[in-house]
Design a protein that fits this description.
Layout lengths: L77 H10 L19 H7 L2 H5 L15 H14 L3 E5 L2 H13 L5 E5 L4 H10 L2 E5 L3 E2 L4 E2 L4 H13 L4 E7 L6 E2 L2 H10 L4 E4 L23 E4 L12 E5 L6 H11 L6 H16 L6 H15 L5 E2 L10 E2 L3 E5 L7 H12 L5 E2 L3 E5 L6 H22 L25 H6 L2 E5 L13 E2 L15 H12 L4 E2 L8 E5 L1
Parallel strand pairs: 2-3, 2-6, 6-8, 8-9
Antiparallel strand pairs: 1-10, 4-5, 7-12, 9-10, 11-13, 13-15, 14-15, 16-19, 17-18
Length: 563
């Protein structure tokens, strides 16, 4: 039970802040807005004031937690410590960056973030180490991350998970090699095929038409793809899997890895949305725990590093580590941000202090929020039996449907944003998805539930209870199942092109990547025949004011096609 004192109705919650003594200059500990008010009581007048909460004790049962078997010991963040020491030196500095520890920092940026970040925005000084060659505190920080996550080696990424996915595919696929991957892979996998020259063999994921959400891939789909390639006298150089998906749907990676390894094929997992997996008994196992060879994680998404910072992990002996290093040296910046690198080190240290209990409070909030939302008439919650062929859905990700209220996800988002200042992670045609993390506070979940209740009260009386799927969003389903590849992604990318009106592009060879974002899933890739289904879907996204990344014409009035 979390105790609190009373505040007047409508009073904004204040954040209780606890500083980590060792890292007081660099890292703030978790901030929790904790209130006794149940989430289910959102909207009532007895909102309580916040105080620091306490973590419940974890009972492991038969579910393994990362490194619980090896009794992982907390280690202070080596790069954070080295950066702090370097910043306080009273040195005469004649090195990059040009702002020279803030002395010439732009005044507008100082007003925004203050002076302190500039003190730590340093280059690769000898005492900090370097990326290439890897040495010093940067190397030590990566070793500590490998211990925590259970990899044989870990690399810090300052180009996001996009960079890691590109490196992983380039390291396993040479020009002309085949890559098995789901058609709803992130656009970074497509760009990786342009860079590597790999040829795609697509798997078409399960698709739930009620939710208009694509799922993951199953072991049987992977096996079918492997056998299809065998009949053509070839084999996959690698298998690429996204797990969890943007909506939190987890594939059976243990079975997939067992199958692929029986053929000597490495498994690459885009775990951008799953860096937290394996750190709580009610969470699914991580990709590394399930035997994946290469795993790329967005540490900044659910964990607490700075945006754009990620990690690439390797395990096993199938993939050549030296080739990974060479690919990273090509793709990574030669002037990496020390702030980004230090944030990865700090995020690792934050987890490693209490790896088995650090997500307790976030999981409690997620469970309570889910219980409250399930009681609101007209609001659907993505769960089993939807996507019942998959072993788990990330409990930290809640996808909410509004079709029973006659609302699209876009409309619900607009109302929630206007009335409650609620901002979700994903806005879809029939749903929104919220992410719960260590930084999620009870007050924000109270506002979400209050907003959902207001939606229910405002729109349900006009419709009454209706069956799932009766109200259609008007948006076409993702056109995954009708893909015709005319040119390789790489050949199409470098081919001569011409611009045509979007209405006149039907049947042409697409010359550019066209990708609604979020979730960053390409609808058309270079080299594919432009279909009526793809055009209808993209125009529907445009009508609903969705963001479309990739095309040179952001209005999608025209499109480049290959000559």
């Amino acid at each position: 039970m979390i105790l609190a004192s009373s505040l007047p109705s409508g009073t904004n919650s204040m954040l209780g802040l606890t500083k980590n003594q060792y890292l007081s200059h660099f890292r703030r500990s978790r901030v929790f807005v904790c209130q006794e008010t149940n989430i289910s009581e959102a909207g009532k007048d007895d909102i309580k004031s916040p105080i620091q909460g306490s973590s419940a004790e974890v009972t492991k049962g038969n579910i393994s937690i990362l490194n619980s078997q090896t009794a992982y010991q907390y280690t202070p963040p080596p790069l954070v410590s080295a950066l702090e020491a370097a910043a306080i030196q009273k040195a005469a500095t004649f090195h990059f960056p040009g702002h020279n520890r803030g002395r010439a920092a732009p005044s507008s940026l100082i007003r925004l973030i203050g002076m302190r970040p500039f003190l730590y925005d340093l280059g690769e000084l000898p005492e900090l180490g370097s990326f290439f060659p890897l040495e010093g505190p940067i190397m030590e920080a990566q070793k500590e991350a490998a211990k925590l996550f259970g990899s044989s080696e870990t690399w810090f990424l300052v180009g996001g998970t996009t960079c890691g996915i590109q490196a992983a595919i380039m390291a396993t696929c040479s020009p002309g090699d085949t890559l098995i991957l789901p058609r709803n892979s992130h656009m970074s996998a497509i760009s990786a095929m342009i860079l590597s020259g790999a040829l795609p063999h697509y798997i078409f994921p399960e698709y739930d038409s009620d939710w208009e959400v694509a799922g993951g891939v199953t072991p049987s789909q992977i096996e079918k793809a492997v056998k299809e390639l065998e009949t053509k006298g070839t084999k996959a150089a690698a298998v690429f899997v996204t797990s969890p998906t943007y909506h939190g749907i987890c594939s059976d990676l243990s079975a997939i890895c067992h199958l692929c390894h029986s053929y000597g094929t490495p498994v690459i997992v885009d775990e951008a949305h799953g860096a937290h997996l394996g750190f709580h008994p009610q969470m699914p196992k991580s990709a590394l725990q399930q035997g994946a060879d290469l795993v790329v994680q967005s540490t900044h998404k659910v964990l607490c590093s700075l945006t754009q910072s990620s990690m690439l992990h390797i395990s096993g002996s199938i993939v050549n580590r030296e080739r990974i290093r060479r690919c990273l040296q090509i793709l990574q910046s030669t002037s990496p941000s020390m702030l980004l690198l230090a944030s990865l080190d700090a995020a690792r240290a934050q987890i490693s202090k209490n790896p088995e209990t650090i997500f307790n409070e976030a999981m409690e909030l997620s469970t309570e929020a889910k219980s409250s939302i399930e009681k609101i008439p007209g609001i659907s919650l993505l769960d089993f039996p939807s996507f019942s062929s998959f072993p788990a859905i990330d409990p930290m990700r809640l996808t909410l449907g509004f079709w029973k209220l006659g609302l699209s996800g876009y409309e619900a988002d607009e109302i929630l944003s206007r009335d409650q200042k609620v901002i979700p992670e994903i806005v879809g045609t029939r749903s929104i998805t919220i992410v719960i993390s260590m930084g999620t506070c009870r007050d924000h979940l109270l506002r979400l539930v209050a907003g959902l209740k207001q939606l229910s009260e405002a729109f349900l009386p006009f419709l009454g209870e209706v069956d799932d799927g009766v109200i259609n969003s008007g948006q076409e389903p993702l056109p995954f199942t009708n893909v015709s590849v005319q040119l390789s992604v790489r050949d199409a990318f470098f081919a001569s092109k011409r611009r045509v009106n979007i209405r006149e592009s039907l049947g042409e060879i697409c010359g550019e990547l066209i990708c609604p974002y979020p979730p960053g899933t390409p609808v058309l890739c270079p080299g594919e025949i432009i279909t009526e289904e793809a055009l209808d879907y993209l125009l529907g996204v445009r009508v609903n004011f969705g963001l479309i990344a990739g095309p040179s014409d952001p209005t999608l009035s025209s499109i480049f096609v290959c000559e």
